[in-house]
Design brief:
The chain has 195 residues and is α/β, with parallel strands linked by helices. Helices cover 53% and strands 14% of the residues. α3 runs antiparallel to α5 and α6 crosses α7. The protein is globular.
Length: 195
């Protein structure tokens, strides 16, 4: 079974992904794959630099410089997504070649990157806006304004809900959300309830 996990940044998708990995599943974090490709795939950085001149310096992407461009310009973000989704999908397909019994694809762009058709089930992870902003500020060391701009550039909760089979609300602490994830995986028949 392949589970597609999606939702905006800072919602807590990684909690579900990590749980599936703990169960022996193949965990494909598309954000992590993208960052690995930035280190190993020069054609990706060249394509980004060609569209966004000056954002790649000596082969290294300046993420904050690129972010300041794409998170304030919808067309620029679409162009970046076109470039990155192609590279990430190619790598995901490569990693799924051995057909694991259980896998999860964690991707904000699960639908736009054409990864959803690979999944047996899709789940949207949602969280309150204030929690997301705080998580991004802490995780990425960015300002409140920049965190809010990143979130505003992404799809609405309704957009994700209309496309996904399931929704998980991350509106409590870590322990409470992990329990929701376990209940969700149990409902899919992946985990057995403890006696």
């Amino acid at each position: 079974m392949i589970i597609g996990i999606t939702g905006g940044t800072g919602c807590g998708k990684t909690t579900l992904l990590n749980l599936i990995e703990e169960m022996g599943g193949t965990a494909l974090d598309c954000d992590r794959i993208y960052h690995q490709l930035l280190q190993t795939d020069s054609s990706l950085t060249q394509a980004i630099d060609a569209r966004f001149p000056g954002t790649v310096e000596e082969g290294v992407l300046n993420r904050k410089k690129l972010g300041s461009i794409v998170f304030s310009d919808e067309n620029a973000l679409k162009d970046l997504n076109r470039i990155t989704h192609h590279a990430v999908k190619k790598e995901v397909l490569h990693r799924l070649e051995n057909t694991p019994a259980l896998a999860a694809i964690d991707a904000i762009g699960l639908f736009e990157g054409e990864l959803a058709p690979l999944c047996d089930v899709t789940v949207f992870v949602s969280a309150p806006l204030e929690d997301r902003v705080l998580r991004l500020m802490q995780r990425d060391g960015i300002s409140k304004e920049y965190a809010a701009a990143r979130i505003a550039a992404q799809h609405s909760d309704r957009w994700f809900q209309e496309k996904c089979h399931h929704t998980l609300y991350n509106n409590g602490d870590f322990v409470a959300f992990r329990a929701k994830c376990i209940a969700f995986l149990t409902s899919l028949g992946i985990m057995k309830e403890k006696p």
